[in-house]
Amino acid sequence: MDIKKQLNDVRNQALKELDDIKENTDIERWRVRYMGKKSQLAEIMRGLSDVPIEMRKTIGATSNAMKAELETALIAKEQEIKNLELAKSAEDAIDVTLPGRIQHQGHIHPVTQAIEEICGIFEGLGFQIVEGNEVEWDHYNFDALNIPKEHPARDTMDTFWMKGGSKPETDWKMLLRTHTSPMQARTMESTPLPIRIVVPGRVYRYEATDATHLAMFTQIEGLAVDEGITFADLKGTLNEFVKRFYGPDRKVRFRTDFFPFVEPGAEIAVSCAICGGEGCRVCGNSGWIEISGCGMVHPSVLEMAGIDSTKYSGFAFGLGIERIPMLRYGIEDVRNYYSGDLRFLRQF
Ligand SMILES: [Zn+2]
Q1: Which of the residues 12, 30, 135, 318 has the least number of beta carbons within 10 Å of its own beta carbon?
Q2: CA of 98 to the centre of ligand 1 (A)
Q3: Does domain 111-345 match CATH 3.30.930.10?
Q4: Are 289 and 322 in contact (CB under 8 A)?
Q5: What is the Å distance from ligand 1's center to 308 Cα?
């Protein structure tokens, strides 16, 4: 048989088998079969003793070239399998050099932060925190607060009325409360005196939203009722609140104002922190920033709740909450609070 053809057959067979190999253990078996001492190649070479010397030379050269070719193919195959194994292990492995993913921690909304801070101060002054219903009867929202039907003050609070909500045997109608004041009437009706409460909560007005107005916003109501409460108690309480919340250097100004459920009524302003009272854009050049309406509880409101107004008196106040962080942080658009934009909220 032609030795050259034999060699060529071995070579083709070897390369074909090598090509099919996928694992290291098979490589070892292949090496023994085609390149070891008992390989076909080695056997052919051993049989060369019978061949004439000239022919032996050319066959030797061919077999050496073949050996080199198989070795090169083997090295390439080994590398290929190594790469396969690396890729496989990388699928399950953790790359410790990759930067971590930032886990954002939730935090308290700036309006809630303000509520908690303000309620904390009033708790320290002996007030109890109560919460009321956001869906309310017009009786508590208006009538019991000395705002009867046809009273012009009703027009100043554009109201969301609930469809079909009415109370049997009354002419009460259901609405979304326009202020937290209904809890004044409800608490006076149901709680033994003395009363000292603050009422944080959401309120609703049927009006267009803009940079300073929302259809839903937050108030904190305050109420104190007892024997012998005077306007001096109101001033003292709110003065103390301002010093604790805004800082000891801020001045407080009371000016008369009208609210149907208080008499006398007042508006409270705090000296502007930005200009120190000189006048600037934030305070509208007045040097003062209004924070609250307040006053002595109207005798009619006490009487409607069944409290003897000749024996007892009280004061009430209401704070708008959204304004407070706006002034503190210079927030220019109140709609930012409820836009759900995390880039805004993560600042606080
Ligand atoms: Zn100012």
Answers
A1: 12
A2: 50
A3: yes
A4: no
A5: 43
Closest CA to 269 of 249, 292, 243: 292
Residue 312's SS3 state is strand
Give bridge partners of residue 320 from the DSSP assignment.
Answer: 219
Q: Are strands 252-257 and 195-204 parallel, antiparallel or unpaired?
A: unpaired
Walk along the chain (348 residues) and give the pLDDT tens digit of each residue: 577 888 888 888 988 988 888 888 888 888 888 888 888 888 877 777 777 888 888 888 888 888 888 899 999 988 988 888 888 877 777 778 888 888 888 889 989 999 999 999 999 999 999 998 999 998 899 888 888 787 777 777 788 888 876 777 788 888 899 999 999 889 988 989 899 999 999 999 988 888 778 889 999 999 999 999 999 999 999 999 989 988 888 888 999 998 888 989 999 998 887 787 788 877 788 888 888 899 999 999 999 889 999 999 999 999 989 888 887 777 888 888 888 888 888 888
Residue found under tokens 């060369």: 48
Q: Quote the tokens at residue 336.
A: 């930012």
Please give the Cα distance from 171 to 161 (Å, whole number): 14
Q: How far is the CA of 210 from the centre of ligand 1 (A)?
A: 22
What is the CA(321)–ligand 1 centre distance, in A?
19
Q: Give 85 Cα–ligand 1 centroid separation in angstroms.
A: 71
**Spatial contact of 294 and 262, defined as CB atoms under 8 Å apart:** yes
8 A C-beta contact, residue 323 and residue 291: yes
Sorted by where each begins, the domain ranges of the chain are: 3-92, 111-345
Ligand 1: centre distance to CA 271 (Å): 8
- What is the 332 CA–ligand 1 centroid distance (Å)? 15
For ligand 1, the distance from its centroid to the CA atom of residue 283, given in whole angstroms, is: 4
306 Cα to the center of ligand 1, angstroms: 44
Determine the Cα–Cα distance for residues 280 and 274; give it in Å rounded to an integer. 7
Residue 216 Cα, ligand 1 centroid: separation in angstroms? Answer: 27
User: What spacing in Å lies between the alpha carbon of 254 and ligand 1's midpoint?
Assistant: 17
